[in-house]
Structure to design on (351 residues):
């Protein structure tokens, strides 16, 4: 099995720590290793370095090379421009060529606490799709709270031991619906971790994203030939910028969900990060902070500045050398709105 780690995202919901020049996959959020490094090492020893590939934007390729001296340069897939997951996956398959092995595709910036259970879940998914190559498999995590920033999967009929047909996907539901999903035994968070055969994915790209498929074929035909770079830059830039879930996963009828209990979190906001590092009602501090009569604070600083909290509660305080961000913990999903305002005001040095 070959693995593609997707590491080209911006991670804007963890601004101001996650910035355009160094997004969250290159940050040491959970331990003394970057999120990307944690993701790759979580795959060992089930996979070898030869079977692990990393897809990233060309502006981050040097960062990836520095992070992974173990990887061959051929295992780093650099997108000439950002075009979302379908295009990144198509570029990977074009460079991989004819491949009879299943593919594992996963994000680079998620937290998984139980490595052993995670690898068991991958083995279960792999065995299932080898017996049922017409299926794609996705890992699902039992919701622990009603998160409105995640995608949900409803399980359908039983396909095999603890493996279910997906009934439907629901992306980022409102709070009322998310609460219903979190209480139910029939719903799982979509972990964004997929296994499938490349020939099956190729067919789905052809059906659901036909223009990108035509450009994928041109790129694949040019691999290893003179002029490849020119073809790649021309065709890749014109690929549809669409997500994998929206364009293919939610439309293909044969998706199997494998429920897991691996201590998963997408670290998709400051509140989620806080809850991953401490209990939801206790403070978490990383950096120079002192509090007086303050409760349930997250103070996260990469600066030497002293943060003093007096008589405050339920706040996220994130500090870098040039930015101080303060928000109510229940509004941390709205950090993206600040990014939009900065872009509108052309204050790109803060993004």
């Amino acid at each position: 099995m070959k693995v593609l780690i997707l590491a080209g995202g911006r991670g804007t919901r963890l601004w101001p720590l996650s910035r355009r020049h160094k997004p969250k996959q290159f940050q040491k959020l959970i331990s003394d290793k970057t999120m990307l490094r944690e993701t790759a090492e979580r795959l060992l020893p089930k996979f070898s370095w030869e079977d692990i590939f990393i897809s990233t934007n060309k502006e981050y390729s040097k960062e990836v090379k520095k992070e992974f001296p173990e990887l061959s340069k051929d295992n780093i897939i650099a997108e000439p421009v950002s075009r979302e997951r379908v295009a990144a996956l198509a570029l990977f398959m074009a460079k991989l060529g004819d491949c009879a092995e299943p593919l594992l595709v996963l994000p680079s910036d998620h937290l998984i606490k139980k490595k052993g259970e995670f690898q068991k879940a991958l083995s279960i998914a792999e065995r299932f799709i080898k017996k049922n190559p017409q299926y794609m498999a996705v890992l699902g995590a039992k919701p622990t709270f009603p998160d409105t920033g995640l995608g949900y999967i409803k399980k359908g009929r039983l396909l095999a031991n603890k493996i279910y047909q997906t009934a439907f996907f629901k992306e980022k539901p409102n709070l009322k619906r998310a609460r219903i999903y979190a209480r139910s035994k029939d719903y799982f968070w979509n972990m964004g971790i997929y296994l499938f055969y490349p020939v099956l994915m190729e067919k789905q790209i052809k059906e659901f994203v036909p223009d990108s498929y035509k450009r994928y074929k041109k790129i694949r035909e040019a691999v290893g030939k003179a002029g490849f770079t020119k073809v790649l830059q021309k065709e890749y830039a014109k690929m549809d910028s669409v997500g994998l879930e929206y364009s293919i996963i939610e439309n293909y009828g044969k998706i199997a969900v494998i429920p897991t209990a691996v201590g998963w979190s997408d670290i998709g906001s400051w509140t989620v990060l806080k809850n991953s590092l401490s209990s939801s009602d206790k403070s978490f501090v990383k950096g120079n902070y002192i509090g007086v009569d303050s409760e349930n604070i997250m103070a996260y600083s990469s600066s030497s500045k002293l943060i003093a909290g007096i008589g405050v509660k339920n706040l996220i305080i994130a500090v870098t050398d040039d930015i101080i961000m303060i928000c109510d913990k229940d509004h941390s999903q709205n950090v993206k709105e600040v990014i939009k305002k900065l872009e509108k005001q052309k204050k790109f040095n803060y993004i």
Notes: The chain has a mean pLDDT of 93. The two ends are 37 Å apart (CA to CA). The first strand starts at residue 2 and ends at 6.
